[in-house]
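Two proteins follow. First one:
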Amino acid sequence: MLALTTATGCGADTVATPSPTATADAIEPLAGTPTPRLPVTVDSADGRKVTVSRAERIVPLSGSLSEIVFTLGLGDRVVARDVTTTFAQAAKLPVVTRNHDVSAESVLSLKPGLVIAETTTGPDEAVAQIRAAGVPVLVVAAAKSLDDVGPRIRTVARALGVPDAGQELAERSRQRIDAVRRTIPGHEEKPRVAFLYLRGSASVHLIGGRECGAGSLIEAAGGIDAGAESGIAGDFATITSEALVKAAPDAILVMDHGLESVGGIDGLVTLPGVAQTPAGMNRRVVSVEDGVLLTYGPRTDRVLATVVDQLYGGGDA
């Protein structure tokens, strides 16, 4: 279950109970199991044409791509996962990444019929080694916003020979995201939300900017991306007192493990500038599971529901 850490009053931390729609640790496949119609030739995001002849042994190299394959109803064909694939149905699959780097040897030992990668998948040498062994490698453009949900689903579905299931899932995802948006309470001023990427054990404390990928989710939840609005044009900037005070967030969005790594909310407010922001003074924190926050896939409606739930405290904010 997601940890719903929210504050509804100054200095008082409360933990809300997740609703069923906000549970994002499991996959909800489409009804029925589609039968792939292969071979197919599809466009890869790296400019290649990829022909897929069989899809009995699939290796998706990101949590988001694994989520799509499982939700299409083809999870029983997946033979491995990467470190960011954290949902329950994939828990027993072997991991073929070290940290976030792909091990070509581990992938090839599983004799895959198709490898699905992101444009951010690396190292390049490992991907090239997999391709050189004769394994089709489909590269999918990395997700950056809610607008990418449908296209990514349809791309993967076409490569697996199940385009109709892809269209069905893309439409289901759109409808569910729209339904969550309709639950956002009316408010005169949009809350300013800053996304902080935290890894306390490595002393990594960053504030997200325009290219970090969180802005679309924040805006869909009815908020303003405080980092981007304050002028951070790239993906991330190091947290400083000046940067946080300028961003002036009303709430702070973090990943669960990141928040834990700095000692929870008590540790978070000791970081430079946090205590001087409205979010820090009110201890207003939105915390979401690492494996789903920025995946932009079939579970994005549940992530959005979680953010909305925490951000507005059930509509009281």
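Second one, unrelated to the first:
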Amino acid sequence: MRDLKIPEQRHPEKAKRPDNPQPKKPAWIRVKAPVGQGYQETRKIMRDNKLVTVCEEAGCPNVGECWNQGHATMMIMGEVCTRACTFCNIATGKPPEDLDVFEPGRVADAVKKLGLNHVVVTSVDRDDIEDGGAAHFAQTIRAIRKQSPSTTIEILTPDFIRCAPGALEEVVAAKPDVFNHNLETVPGLYPEVRPGARYFHSLRLLQRVKELDPTMFTKSGIMVGLGEDRQAVHQVMDDMRAANVDFITIGQYLQPTLKHHRVDRFVTPKEFASYEKAAKGKGFLMVSATPLTRSSYHAGDDFAKMQKARQAAQG
């Protein structure tokens, strides 16, 4: 039995990689340790419902702030991912269990107990399942809708690259309010950073969502500080806009362990501000570009702003 608290067992494919020293974080990237009553209450609801969160599994730096406010990103389909992206701290390997048919109901129950106005649901990659978990996503969306009809739902999905036709269509048909799929990095870094994925497949996935449902908001994000240059980041912005992506997130990559992809550099707040300005100029409805930006950080507030921006754009 693997112990996912031990790095060598959590990431067996990284165990023999050379160490990448972790540079000291600058002042603008440091955050306080998670404390507070709200944090403890959110943690208890997650444990009582036997739910996994990407906040914990991926080591998100914003977990203290978000959980204190009762916000958590649910991670469905287990805690072991079939991919081995070099930036990611989620455990990798062959998932030890089948999908839990009761999980959608438990997620919906937690959403109701937390009283969420907006919820983000993500997952590990499950290349071992024929539809990649598409039906499970759809069931989770429907379960939340049934218990919390006023809650808006944002999903952050895998790429479904190895799935039977129709997987994406099933998820879109369940009508999430926001469909998010992250490109993660610039195309030139995919072989090293995201070896199990394909840049243009992910881009096409986002474009296909809009073709299936033009009213659905689409969202995607990248990390910077992995070794990319400004020109490549701007090209990703252009590619996203060509695929009609509404919302872009850009955040600083933080190295989880010595065995993960190295931090090339810490991008300054001034550089992030320039990326935000450029993205707005390219026509995104919503942009979040700061060192601590993550896919689901302030997602509810950003969704409300995105709705207003669309209404304004439509006159």
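SUMMARY FIELD: The radius of gyration is 18 Å. The mean pLDDT is 88.
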